[in-house]
Amino acid sequence: MQLLVVQFLSGLASAASLFLVASGLSLIFGVTRIVNFAHGAFFMIGAYLAFTLTDEFSGPLGFWGGMALAAILVGLLGGLFEILLLRRIYRAPELFQLLATFGATLVVQDLVLLIWGPEDLLAPRAPGLAGAVEVLGKRVPSYDLFLIVLGPVVLALLWLLLHRTRWGVLVRAATQDRDMVAALGVNQKWLFTGVFALGTFLAGLGGALEAPREAADHTMDLRIIVEIFVVVVIGGLGSIEGAFVAAILVSLLNAFGILILPKISLVLVFLLMAVVLVIRPWGLFGKKEGAARISGGATASVWKPLDRDGRLVALIFVAAAALAPLALGPYGLAVATEIAIFVLFAASLHLLVSVGGLASFGHAAFLGLGCYGAALTVKALGLPMLPALVAGPVLAALGAAVIGWFAVSLSGVYAAMLTLAFAQILWSIAFQWVPVTGGDNGLLGVWPSPWAATASHLYWLTLTLVVVAVTGLRAIIFSPFGYALRATRDSDLRSEAIGIDRRRVQWRAFVIAGAGAGLAGALFAFLKGSVFPDTMGVSTSIDGLVMVLLGGVETVSGPIVGAIVYKLLSIWLVSHTDYSKLVLGLVIIGLVLIFPKGIAGSLRLRRLRRGVAAREKAPA
Amino acid sequence: MTALLEVHELAKAYGGVHAVRGVSLSVASGEIVAFIGPNGAGKSTCFNMLNGQIRPDAGTIRLDGRDIAGWPPREVWRLGVGRTFQITATFASMSVIENVQMVFLSHAGRLGRLWGLATLAERERAEILAALESVDAVVIFDAPTPRELIAALLPDVLVKGGDWPGDQIVGREEVEAAGGRVVSIPVVPGYSTTAILRKIREGAPSSRVEA
């Protein structure tokens, strides 16, 4: 009983910080429609700044002043980030801003390492709240009690700000209908900047308040980002009250899950999120998103299969790739194999994201299922490589059939979040189902059959399968089914009015994309000789999205270019600099600014412009 | 002559606002019918209920004797009901020909195919066109429709007029000149969006509108 009460209070204390960070994310999304992946980074900066500032200034004034200053600095940084970067890319395709925020996350991770070093840092205890209070014979830190009170206070202040000030009314109006607010003559730029600054301020405050409780470390950004996604989705995107209730739910579930169901503790939160999304697709307090206004042809150009020149270029490219073993050593070939695998991974995600308009934040789930499917076929069933290469995609396709069935009944960010939830559920299972998956230790010794064991043979096998699969995916894009899928993306209204069953079409796309990623996963297992849960972690999913977005969503060849560029760059950077994330992040941000339509997309646009210019110059 | 489309006491309300109430009409095969009424009278809402975009609260929609009220648009389309949208809805990443092709492919039940190119043979297209002509189709135009288009139309058509009176594009006379009939959609007294707009314009004391 006592333990339960203590656990309950500790859960409530964690909820306070979670609520602060999540409400910031929710506000930002509500108004700007940006999924701010960098929110965890701002949270982390808040924690580190709080450590330094409270260390610098002593005494109660120094401590609380330092906390406030840390949060304010983070808010200013957020505002600056919005002005310098996000403002330039609001007109870019949906999700493209995600790239920029992801780049910022990478930069911050290395900057934190550079400035504060790799050690875990614990801020000093709060003056006056350093002790503990006895509750039912157990000692509860008074700082925890302070946090429990602070949560509702911040909620009340935010409520007053949003309901009792002119600015707050604008923010709430913009959350419901941005275009209408703009049409009423409100300067959106400063509204967006203000909301972004407020949101990141809350993230920084959340980080600062956690600093005396839990040591700051440089992976805390990724940990919190997944958790606040969950909170925001359960509560309802754009709803502050929802974030508050959901933060308490999630924190209590975490606190009690470890006590009651330790074996599946990691799964619980994501199960809750999946259940909420299936029953109440817009979260507990969310409202159904108003019909999006037609944005004047999101995709302006017509998709065409490769013409003769294009096919020739592709053929030359594949032939050159096939000759790679003549030039590369074992290491180079391993890198080339990995790149080929990720080309397939990105191409399969492209079918969902670009062709189907279905954002997926959990595509790594299918890669992981392919990995485990292949590895278990070899390890548990004792079968050779070929059956394993079939089992991987089959398992992934089955997983995609289940996940896709739920995801297609939602739309937009909610569907993306549901895929994230499912991917995290699978990740948790792989992590905690030790007897089968080996847990954190993974499955080792998944080696290819003797005929494919050398680096060049494995490379050729991979290249062949990848070329066949990617060609197949392209053929599907231009098949009647591919047109139907694109039709549901282009205009839901029109496709429904000509008899297309959107859910069915999109569900099939999920299965196909899942199988493609599964094949990539199976090959990946044999390349590495081992399988670990992190293959299906969030960062792999985000990697996939980055590849697709870098290449350009509005193109057919984008994912191939994107995967090659991104993979080459990240592998090269890791072996050439200690601060690969910093450079990679800056490169991504740079690419976003230079190529706001993706690499392949911008190149094509440039070619089109040149064509128009040439035609205009030609004598009539 | 039996009615191809028969609508009886159609109604739709949003919260306390009655967008459409008590609309009844019947359209015979080969007839042109126009809906006219002031802004907010519920013309588009009527159309959206006819093709399944919106589920009516009450009333029946009989197409060829079958009650299709509440059917999803794709099922209604299968019975031969086509429509335009007030804000054009097209497939932006496809050419004009491909946009049209999509309708044919869907009609031929071909859109599930994973292989081959998304085109139809000339012969198939001719067959489908012939099939379409024999179907008693209803085409709904949810926008003021130019006179030439009305005159050129062969199948049964519902045309939406703009504001009434004094509409520039389609008025009562033009529809009647083209051999059509006009159905006037009245504003639901005290409840319609027009009434609410008027209240706001007159300076309703608070944002609360009679619900």
Write a structural description.
The complex is a heterodimer of chains A (620) and B (211). With 620 residues, chain A is mainly α. In chain A, 73% of the residues lie in helices and 2% in strands. In chain A, helix 2 packs across helix 9. Chain A is globular. The relative contact order of chain A is 0.12. The model of chain A is unreliable at 291-299 (pLDDT under 50). With 211 residues, chain B is α/β, with parallel strands linked by helices. Helix content of chain B is 28%, strand content 25%. Chain B has 7 helices and 9 strands, in the order E-E-E-H-E-E-H-E-H-H-E-H-E-H-E-H. Chain B has helices at residues 43-50, 73-78, 96-107, 122-134, 147-152, 172-177, 193-201, and strands at 3-14, 17-28, 32-36, 58-63, 66-67, 81-83, 138-141, 156-160, 181-184. In chain B, the strands form 2 sheets. In chain B, strands 6-7-8-3-9 form a 5-stranded parallel β-sheet. A 4-stranded antiparallel β-sheet of chain B has the order 2-1-4-5, covered by helices on one side.
